[in-house]
Amino acid sequence: MKIEVNKLAEYFAHIPIEVEGIYRFTQKPGKSWPSYTEAFPGFVFPLKGRVEFSFNGTPYIFTPGKVIHGGARMELAEKGSDTKWEYLLVLYQTSGVEPEEWSFSSSHFEMQVGYSPRLYDLLERLWKVSFQSGGLPAFQTKALFYNVLEEVFTCVRNQTNDSSKTLFDQVSKYIHEHYSEGLTISMLTKQNGVNRNRLSYVFNKYSGMGPGDYLLSYRLNRAKELLVVENVSIKEIALAVGFSDPLYFSRIFKKQFALSPSEYRKRFINNPY
Q1: How many domains does the chain fold into?
Q2: How many Å apart are CA 102 and CA 6, to the nearest integer?
Q3: CB 149 within 8 A of CB 118
Q4: Is the pTM of this model over 0.70?
């Protein structure tokens, strides 16, 4: 189902809702799943990994950078996953009369949000406050859920506007914060709902290099900083900046800077400038 974010925002602005439950799961491949969704509609916020499900026969790929909505008691089937994946599930219910043209709570759809540090921060706060009891935590839970929806709608709007600069800022910021992890270009494209050509065009436009070269350059420059300020081995530095093979790291470092990591350290350890 193709969703119009303005209509969805209008729906949640006018239809009273109550948060019914907030759940966080980490699932391993091979786990059996129920045949139907929960008794309430809800939003799934993928946090890590990748898995494919279908709602009423319609397939969806769950990865970070997306938000998936499912209606109550829909047929649910897992298509398969070869990785561990983590997600946050927020169930809600509506009250009052729901106009027929606004039957979102009984629909399934996905939204491309891209990478949003604010969204992940809000989800973490929502998850933590859900453990607390009392009137104030209940109020905070509802307020945070609306803040989450606001951020989702804003991110979707930015994605829809197809802003090249916004895309570059999102992806480059993600690289700066996660360069030590096993990032791949395929992962970055899926998280942001774009193809490889689009991502390559944006990075060449704003950085003068493709996303792969940008990631490599950022890792190597972080390695240069560590070599002159940290008393750790070359192997540890390689791992710290995202290289699983220290020999490859040394080879690519020398190709980039005309000095091996150990030679660079010896030359600049007392004079990094």
Answers
A1: 2
A2: 12
A3: no
A4: no
43 and 18 in contact (C-beta within 8 Å)? no
pLDDT class for 9, splitting at 50, 70, 90? very high
Give the domain-ending residue among 112, 139, 160: 160
Q: Based on the domain organization, do 152 and 232 belong to the same domain?
A: no
Residues whose CB falls within 8 Å of the CB of residue 155, separated by 6 or more in sequence, listed in order:
113, 114, 116, 119
Sorting pLDDT into bands at 50, 70 and 90, what band is 22?
very high
Which residue from 29, 70, 22 is spatially nearest to 49, judged by alpha carbons? 29
Q: Which residue segment(s) compose the domain that 52 sits in?
A: 5-160
Rounded to whole angstroms, the Cα distance separating 205 from 196 reads 14
Residue at which a domain ends, from 160, 192, 212:
160
Query: Rounded to an integer, what distance in angstroms lies between the CA atom of residue 165 and that of residue 218?
Result: 19
CA distance 13 to 10: 5
Radius of gyration of the chain (CA): 22
List, for residues 114-136, the tens digit of each pLDDT value. Answer: 777 789 889 999 999 999 999 99
If asked whether residues 138 and 20 sit together in one domain, one would say: yes
Q: Is 257 exposed, middle or buried (0-12, 13-18, 19+ CB in 10 A)?
A: middle
Phi, psi of 75 (to 5 degrees): -65, 130
What letter represents residue 158's amino acid?
N
Tell me the C-alpha distance between 269 and 273, whole Å.
10
pLDDT at 68 over 50: yes
